[in-house]
Structure formats: C-alpha cells, structure tokens
Input
Amino acid sequence: MAETQTMPAARPVSTRRNTTFFSRNKLVIMPLVFIAPALAMFSLFVIWPILQSISLSFTEWQGIGPKKWVGLSNYRYLFSDPVFWTSLVNNIYWLVLFLLAPVFGLLVALFLNQTVFGIRLVKSLFFFPFVVSQIVVGLVFAWFYDPAFGLLATILEPFGIEFPPILADEDWATFGIIVAGLWPQTAYCMILYLTGLNSVNPEMIEAARLDGAKGWRLLVKIVLPQLRAATFIALVVTVIGALRSFDLVAVMTEGGPYNSSNVLAYYMYDNAIFRYRMGYASAIATVLFMIMNVYIIWFLLRLWKNEKGAR
Amino acid sequence: MADVVLKDVRKSFGAVDVIKGVDLEAKHGEFVVFVGPSGCGKSTLLRMICGLEKITSGQLLIGDEDMSDVEASDRGTAMVFQSYALYPHMSVADNMSFGLRMAKTPQKVVESRVKKAAEILQITHLLDRKPKDMSGGQRQRVAIGRAIVREPKVFLFDEPLSNLDAELRVQMRVELSKLHNEIGATMIYVTHDQVEAMTMADKIVVLRDGRIEQIGSPLDLYMSPDNKFVAGFIGSPRMNFLRAQIVGSANGHAQVSVPDAPDHVLHIPLRDAADVSTGQEVTIGIRPEHFLGTPEGPGLKVTIDVVENLGGIAYAYGRTNAMQDVILKAESETPPRSGMAVTASINDAYCHLFDKEGRTLSTSAGAIRSQDAAA
Output
C-alpha cells in the first residue's frame, strides 16, 4: 500500500496530469468502495446482532418489558445447569461422530470416481440427501426408527429381532439423530471430494502406478495430498455443522427424552422461545459462539496462510 | 539384453480395434521413435509396453522375458509423461526417489542414485524445490530424473517435449540424445513431430490406424518411403504430390508424363517393371529440394503464392496451372516473389512413383545412394 501511494510522487511526470485526490489514490479507494456495501450489510446483520446477544447475556429479559442487568449470574447459573452440560457433551458427540462424514464422503467419492455405465445416475442418487431439507431428513429417519411400523422394525421383525425405540431411549436418542445427520453431511463431503478428484492429473496416478504404488499406499501418499483443499473445507464445514446442529433435534426429539438428546443450539432456542429467558438463551449462544470461534479462527488463519503462499 | 519385442500385439477397446497387429523389435540400446498422426495408436502402443494398458492379444518380450501380463511396476520400464506427472506435494528429491522408496530400496542406495541422476541432469540445486516453483524445462528434467533413478531396462517417452517452447524443445532434444549415449539403455519415444523423429531416432516406426506403415532409419524413410503416407509424413516441408500418367516403360524405367509439365517426360527407375502399364494413373512425389533450379527449359510452371524465407533457405508455396499445390526450395538470397511464375524442373533421379493405392513403385536414386552409404 505504502508503495502504491509513493509511486506517483516518485514520477512527477505522471502527477502533472492526474492531480485529483481520487486519481492519485485510486488503488486505495476503489477496493474500499467495492467492499463497503458488503461490509455494511455484514456489520448490520452479523456483527451487530452478535454484540447485542453478548450484551443481552448479562441481563434478565422476558422478550418484552424492561431488561434487568444481572452481571454474570446467567453464566453462573448456566455452569450449574445439568441440561447445559448434557447439551455440551452431546455437542461433543456430534462433533466427534460427524467427523465420520468426511471419511465416508471420501470413500463414496472414490467409489463414484470411475467411468462405468450409469455412474451419473448413481452419483445423482448419492447427491440426493444433500438437496433434501434437513427437516425432511429428520422426518424420514424418525419413520425409519419408528418401533411399530418403521422401516427398520419391519425389516428386523421376520428375524425375530425387536427393534428398540431409539429416539425414546435416553442413551441412544442422540446417536439416532447423529446417524440421520451423517447422511446429508456425507453427501456434502462426497461432492467436495468428487470435485477434488476431478482435478487430479490422471497421468500422475499412472506415474505412481509405474512407481509401484498401489491401493492404500497410492491413496495415502499420492491421492490424499492432492485433496488437501477438499479435506480442509470438508472438516471445517463438518465441525461447524456439528456444533450448530439444531433442525434434526427439533424435528426428531425436541431434545427429549428428558433433555437427553439436547444440544446447545436447541437448548438456546428452547429457552428463548418457549421459556422467554432471553438473557439465559443469550448466555448459551455466547458460549456456543466462543466454542465455534476456536474453529473459525483456525479456519481463517489457514486461509490467510494459503492466500499468502499463493501470492 | 533388454531387447523389446512385440509379436502380433493387438488392442481393442470394446468393439474398436486400436492396435491391429504390430510386430516390432527394438534392440538393446536402440533409440526407437514411434511417429504418426494423432489417433494412430502410438501412445496406446507405448502404454501397452509399460503396462498401463492391457494387451488384448499377442506377446510382449522385454529382455527375453514374457511381460505381457506382468504388473506395470515390475516390467523394468520407466515412463516420462507429456504432462510430466510430477507429484506436486513432494520435493524434487522425493519425486525422484518415490519409486525406489515404494520398492523398499535401502536409504543409502536411494540417496546415491538420486544424487547421480541429479548430476547427469544438472538439477542438483533444485532437489529441495517443489514442482510448482520450477519452469517447464526444469520439471521435464525432474520427470526424466524420476525415470533414471529406477535404472530401468527400457525408457519410455510419451511426447515429452510437446509442452515446451520451441527453443527449449530443440535444446532438450539434443540433451535427450546425449543422455541416450550416456546411459545406453533402450529408449522408446512417441511423438507426432517428425522433426523429433528424424533427429533423435536410430529407428523410426511410422504408424497409421493401428498398423505399422514402415520401420527404418530416418534416412531410409526419407529416401525410400514404402508408400505415399510415409512419403508425405516424413520430411518438412512435406513432399509434393502431382498427378501423372505412365506413358511407357523400358529398361526397368517408367516413362511418366505430368500434365502440368507436358514438355517433360520423366524416367523413373522401377522396383518391378511388371507393376506398371501404359496409361496407368499414378502420383509422383518429389521433395521441395529436389527440383533443379533452371529458370528456362522444360518443367513445371508454378505461380508463387507465398515465400517463407528462413534466412538460410527459403520455401516458395505455389500452384501449377492445374491448381496443384507445390512447395519449392529456393535460394534465400534471391528468393522468388509472390505472384511470380517460375519453371521448376523435376529431377527424376529423386522422383517417387506411387500407384492409386499409395504403394511405392519406384526405386529412387536417392535410395540407391543411401543403401550404398550404409554398405
């Protein structure tokens, strides 16, 4: 930046013609002009609500009426709330198990990345859950799990196995929802990996084959390093997706039974909308936001480093 | 030693036959070039030798061993690809040593081989770099280095120079020839560029449509092509082809008249006098440099369209009265100008004669001369 500003000064011949402030600082002003609308919108609809939520978390408020400043008492209450801890642990389950999505996605992508008759149809079938709304996914899986007439119960019945009512079981409800969530998430990762595989030079794979790399070693040493960008995005999207899991919980169990399948995002919603505890909900939101920040900052740092490397 | 022998090798993709029966022998240490227009199957043939494509039928021997069904990595071949196909996430040294490490070669051997190959190719200073930080020519060297460290019996090159700019291509051509002399291994090289074939090969294999059209030394192919296709493909600028007619034959020579040069009857020596009959429609072929530079007298009347002056020589592109395209070699210092009408007298000692199917009927003086030189 400093260089671009001093350049006209170093060449007096060109300054004689372009003397307006704008023409001299064009390289600084124009980017700002282009960024400004997005920046304004982002500040208004993202930054400002974040700040508002954080400040709200220090108050007690029913949504209408006066706000009462309570300091850190929402947080104090939060950390002694067993439902908060259940939700947090569930979120960790989500996070860990959701990491299977990139793995499955890669496997499916490797399977689909071949030229066989009809592979396009198969690809679009695998793509399908990604297009479907999360609500629909939740409903479909809820029907799968239905202990009376559900798909799984019906399949297992002839074998004399009674399918347990997963979503009504405190120990299993969360995992039942996570499996449902993995379905579209795997499809998403698969798309990322398919695009990545498309850009791998086939001659390089052949060279590796001539070099004696086969199967697992070919995948790990040659193919996977080419998919680093895809893996990075898949990881970030999956982690964020796991932390903000909400709609599936809302549709399938509403956090139950006895809050055993609750997650932070749903608990926040529950407190705000059904219990009118805006301050408390904001405190949950703030905690969730801080956890996410860890990943977002990691993501931004990586992105920044890559950008620098590309220059 | 490491001869490469192909016996009636065929390849089909489904119902499409790509290689239609190839018999070929590359002796140990020979530099063999496969050349042909795109789609002729030359790359497929190379990929069959290295094992990237299965051989549908026939036999492949490398150094007397049947390799037809052996894994690509166990055939003792190494390939250099057109796109270099380097591993972008590895340093040059890792790129070159990857194959050896896959084969669990002791670390010391790996290091010394990489070092030696890097010295041969003068890329020692690049060993720690990543492919993306190198120029095309440097990447090409690394790709060749990756082949060298494996110490293969046979080197395979798939159009390795076509991604380089013209100047670098000439330089790499010379270096590859030098490398071949230095290493002495069998090399098989695929190109569509007949200049590369002419300059580098001990033996050229001209392919068309999955079949071998002719095998021979560069000069053989240039001087006595077996058919019109080879005649047209080898040589740059290409050979001129003119419609002509047999007007008689005597003493093993055909008397040929060219409609565009009615005052000049050519006497062309024949391979077999029984092949021709009076009145037969034929094609004569003559290279741009084999016209005699006489401004007057009998010959082909040519109107010049364009002159390309290369400094050392010039080529004039023109048309005969019957609108047949002709290329003439000309003096670069006194080239003809476009629009000029010139008389090109045909040197019948260097004339080739082809029948309607494109088979060569003549045995040109040039061919006799090159055979004398070989003997």
